[in-house]
Amino acid sequence: MLSLSLCLPSSVTVTSAIHGSSDAKDLNFESVARSLSARTPHKLLKACIRSGNLELGKLLHQKLTESGLDLDSLLLNSLISLYSKCGEWENALSIFRNMGSNKRDLVSWSAIISCFANNSMESRALVTFLRMLQHGIYPNEYCFTASIRACSNAEYLPIGRVIFGFVLKTGYFDSHVCVGCALIDMLIKGGADIESARMVFEKMQDKNVVTWNLMITRFAQLGLLGDAVDLFCRMLVSGYTPDSFTLTSLLSSCAEMELLSPGKQLHSWVIRSGLGSDVCVGCSLVDMYAKCGSVENCRKMFNRMPRHNVMSWTALISGYVQGRQEEEAIKLFCNMLPGHVAPNCYTFSSVIKACANLPNFGFGKQLHGQTIKLGLASINCVGNSLINMYARCGNKEAALEVFNDMGDRNVITWTSVISGFAKHGFATKALELFYEMLEIGVKPNDVTYIAVLSACSHVGLIDEAWKHFNSMHYNHGVVPRMEHYACMVDLLGRSGFLLEAIDFINSMPFDADALVWRTFLGSCRVHRNTKLGEHAAKMILEREPRDPATYILLSNLYASEGRWDDVAAIRKSMKQKRLIKETGYSWIEVDNQVHKFHVGDTSHPQAQKIYDELDELALKIKNLGYVPNTDYVLHDVEDEQKEQYLFQHSEKIAVAFALISTLKSKPIRVFKNLRVCGDCHTAIKYISIVTGREIVVRDANRFHHIKDGKCSCNDYW
């Protein structure tokens, strides 16, 4: 046993050296030996391991080597553990290899196997484990634990099952908690073998809170909330006290599955147990209420927390964004900053999402600037939100610029930019990005394919859409769901293939929901097929009897054919059922101020100038060949009055205001909460010719980039 004692010079305490003092490098080895005889190298190395002080540990290693003394197994094993913990596996391996066979004991093998497992070198850990067995050394609980952890990756699960069988025969996990926990983790993470994991758990004699937490957490992560809650109840009955980790795991599961009722029950237990003041539990409760759509409870929980951190603020802001209360979310973000709580990438991601749904996205641009200053713009969650924000706000160029600046792009990043170009009607660019994504090996998910099919739908690429729809399951294991079928129905219907569309609906492997039928009804409205439209409306109302949009679409279909009695009957029925039609309006942002217009709006301070501009535009575009399509006037009035009504539509008013208020060099960006009217779509194309302006219109479904009389949607609007 090495008896050399070490100390630190008087100006540097042992504690400061262990915790990384800059003076540690000035360690005087000889003076250490003279001053602190009780503090052996073993103890000091253990302190370095506990604190992770690699600098001092290396210095000790250097001085011990220079001393020429014969280092014992205990000290060498401690050095292996130090380098393992600090991620320097090469140094750990070098020490292990240079140990004589007389010094390489079971602890040495355990230390190096743990080193490989801790540094994600699973194959090396398992090979070393097998070599240890070949040397006739029987593993202890630490060897088993490290080797089993190395098998948590599905790739090594078969080897893990062999080790599992070995352990099972010996009953080693019955009395060794660490082995049992490693087995449970491997079986669930590596192969979702719930029954085997449950068997190990039940056979374990010495369970502790960590064991219970592991089972509850893994069950919750698999979506088996019922089993997780049952275990939670058993844990209480068995006399174990759940900690914050137990509660956060269960609450996170409730949040992800949007299960409010069990979440509230857990909240009640939290209050009774006195864990309500725990910051982690409080944040989990705020997050649970937010994701379950209970914004009011989310705010109450936040207000009750004794102190707030970035997690609680972010959860609250996210809750308001999900609850479509974007302005309140932005206010909360602004209130957060004076409290000296620094927003993180998730906070920025949430508040940027809020900006994507607001008419004034100037604040979103400011947030983008802040993320660049803080070095957060290229982080996935922030970059993805920025792409989505710029795409939704009509600036596809900025969305692409953010995408190009991101180094690490995941499937959400690619899907966001593909979806952005799809909504803007640039199917060629969207598909080009999709093929680039496949080429670099990023696997598309179900949302990616919705974006791809939408791109095809928006411009009428029928063959291309069929190719992707028929291959998505075979090529990438994506099973078509309702939204994919709705995209195909939209494509077929808007291309005029109504009979093919309804045959497709009837051939679906599950009952079509209201979304699919509503999509088909919209196509019937475009192509004036009243018979099929009535059938679609009947299907929708069977599923959603109080859907006002269906009544409006059917009423518009009747109005386009002059069936005013039927129109009146629908309006009467809506009145009796107290169904309210959503009011249409358009808005435009000029000089960071939002201007909102309704049909026939005269409330704007510049109303007279706006209508004078509209009168001039009407004359100019008629001279170019524009003919007002009075079919889009859904009132039984004279044709002259219908034409007058057409020029009072909110999107035309917004465009006229933009023409008198913005520079000619800038694109005009108009937003509408409902679908753009067909006549307005045609008129704006003519207006783009006579004014030489690019006009971007975002309606409830997509963007229309109109320039020189042409629209990006190829009139599949």
TrEMBL record:
Record-annotated DYW domain positions: 625-717
Stretches forming PPR repeats: 72-102, 105-139, 208-242, 309-343, 410-444, 445-480
PROSITE patterns: PPR (PS51375)
Entry's Gene Ontology molecular function annotations: RNA binding; zinc ion binding
Keyword Signal: yes
Family: Belongs to the PPR family. PCMP-H subfamily.
Protein name stated in the entry: DYW domain-containing protein
